[in-house]
Write a structure and sequence with these properties.
Layout: H1 2-44, H2 46-61, H3 72-85, H4 87-119, H5 121-135, H6 139-150, H7 154-178, H8 182-190, H9 195-232, H10 238-247, H11 251-286
């Protein structure tokens, strides 16, 4: 009885050790990953910190007039004032809504055209030269023409920004479809998939990570185009705040708006990069 009891205790202890080791390995891996991420974040803050110190030094030294270079403290105070009155959040929300509608419009067209020219040689011959021509023309150049047809209404902003989204999404989709592995297509032929089955079960899953990368690029192009459009033809939005600050001769509003545009653009890109990495990992596991 004693030997049997001791044997069971030994087995229980060994099982506990096997349970603890994988858990400790997971925690250790997580801590290492967290430390690496924290290190990258700290390194990324070095340059902004140096710029902030230099900005403060130039202001204190009065090398530039306050009407040209306001103090960092004033810009920070302006940020909280406009946030408190709701002017900053309202204009930022308007800009993000424009981005959303523009990405839906431009991204949708880019996806449809990209799949069409990737799957059909005739569609490529008919459509690709036109969209390649559009790619050579900057978004700001379309605004005078769009003003004639659309006026200065909200549709002008959405269409102008959507033009910046179409091309990167279309190119990414087209190339992703063409680069689908021939081995995967051969498997579809072996199983006698229909065209729809081949598209939905082989081509789209294989091309999806690169398409998401194209959408990421399209969103960032839309964010850049948004600022141009709101500077030139808008009375609302985060880009308009720059014009408003210049008209009021308040450079603190101008600087604050530029910083907010940069931070929001960085956050958007970081979120999209995270999503893109998830899709890349999924593709490696799936294929």
């Amino acid at each position: 009885m004693t030997n049997s009891h001791q044997h069971k205790n030994i087995q229980t202890t060994e099982a506990d050790q096997f349970d603890v080791l994988p858990l400790w390995a997971t925690v250790r891996h997580g801590l290492i990953h967290l430390g690496q991420w924290g290190g990258r974040v700290l390194i990324g803050f070095i340059v902004p910190f140096v710029v902030l110190v230099l900005w403060h030094f130039l202001y204190k030294s009065q090398w530039l007039a306050e009407q040209i270079l306001p103090s960092p403290q004033l810009v920070w105070q302006t940020f909280w004032e406009l946030l408190g009155t709701g002017e900053l959040s309202e204009n930022l929300l308007i800009s993000l809504q424009r981005i959303g509608w523009s990405v839906l419009l431009g991204g949708g067209i880019g996806l449809v055209v990209g799949f069409a020219i990737g799957l059909s040689r005739k569609a490529y011959d008919y459509l690709y030269p036109t969209f390649n021509l559009i790619a050579q023309f900057p978004v700001i150049g379309w605004i005078p023409l769009l003003l004639i047809f659309l006026g200065i209404e909200e549709s002008l902003k959405i269409v102008a920004i959507a033009l910046a989204v179409v091309v990167p999404v279309m190119v990414a989709t087209y190339k992703s479809v063409l680069n689908v592995s021939s081995k995967l297509l051969e498997v579809a032929q072996v199983y006698e998939f229909s065209r729809w089955q081949t598209l939905s079960k082989v081509i789209i899953p294989a091309a999806l990570p690169n398409i998401v990368g194209g959408l990421r690029q399209g969103v960032m192009q839309a964010w850049l185009a948004l600022v141009f459009v709101e500077l030139l033809a808008s009375s609302e939005g985060i880009g308009y705040l720059i014009v408003w600050g210049r008209q009021l001769i308040q450079p603190d509003i101008v600087y604050m708006s530029i910083i907010v545009i940069g931070v929001v653009g960085y956050l958007l890109d970081s979120i999209l990069q995270f999503i893109e990495q998830r899709f890349n990992r999924w593709q490696k596991q799936a294929f």
